[in-house]
């Protein structure tokens, strides 16, 4: 009667070498994929969030009066941080500040009115530097961002439109980061979160929104490079890569009318995003978005290109029909 150990070695000695190689390859492939799934489950659902107060007592949020930025402001306040809110609308800033202080009475809030589409934002950047001079700034959320109002071929995009996209997404993110970073360097501690886009990372192209995708690719590469430059200074730089989130911008551009399984509300997205701060240099915080990224990575790039182009063309067609109807109503 053979023992289990003897049976195992007997099988090894009598099996052809090619079968043994295939068996070991299969075993390690299953093991690798199992470990990948386990790691994803841990990061998405089980890993504890960091105590954000470790970085400092103040957080800065750009684009803080709507959508993802507004939700970040509330979540940072809930985490015990004071806030510097930056946006172009003074009225909205005051309203958000009042609401946050009503819900979190111990939270201090400072507001800065800054329109990133202006040609010269040096005055606004100087105001940020002045406001934070004596503050223990620990976290910067570079959320401000815009895209085209309509799906358009590159040659059709008005210069003012694409220049505004560049000013907000590239210049705005760069200048605010440069203004805040010296404070973090001085104390060897801080976290910078730049909001990227699946249009620049997850899919190989974003036709009919080319300049928007290009600016978000800049944000992604800037984030990765700064992560490498400043990680030894105790500064965690991260690019968060969302797909569609049910915000006003997504509603205008992609006709996203409400949240669903794969399209979270801004609040649900940010609850996941907050838990990822301080970890990987690039992440997709919301679990359903990361699943979509996984599925997309399995498809040929040519297929993804064709799919994205068809979506862009369909949006362009619908927008053209809508504009014609509006013009017809005006003529009547």
Automatic annotation (TrEMBL):
InterPro entries: NAD(P)-bd_dom_sf, Sc_DH/Rdtase_CS, SDR_fam, VLCFA-Steroid_DH. Keywords: Membrane, NADP, Oxidoreductase, Transmembrane, Transmembrane helix. It is found in: Endoplasmic reticulum. The chain crosses the membrane at residues 17-42. Its main location: endoplasmic reticulum. GO terms for cellular component: endoplasmic reticulum. PROSITE patterns: ADH_SHORT. Pfam families: adh_short (PF00106). Gene3D superfamilies: NAD(P)-binding Rossmann-like Domain. GO terms for molecular function: ketoreductase activity. Belongs to the short-chain dehydrogenases/reductases (SDR) family. This is Uncharacterized protein.
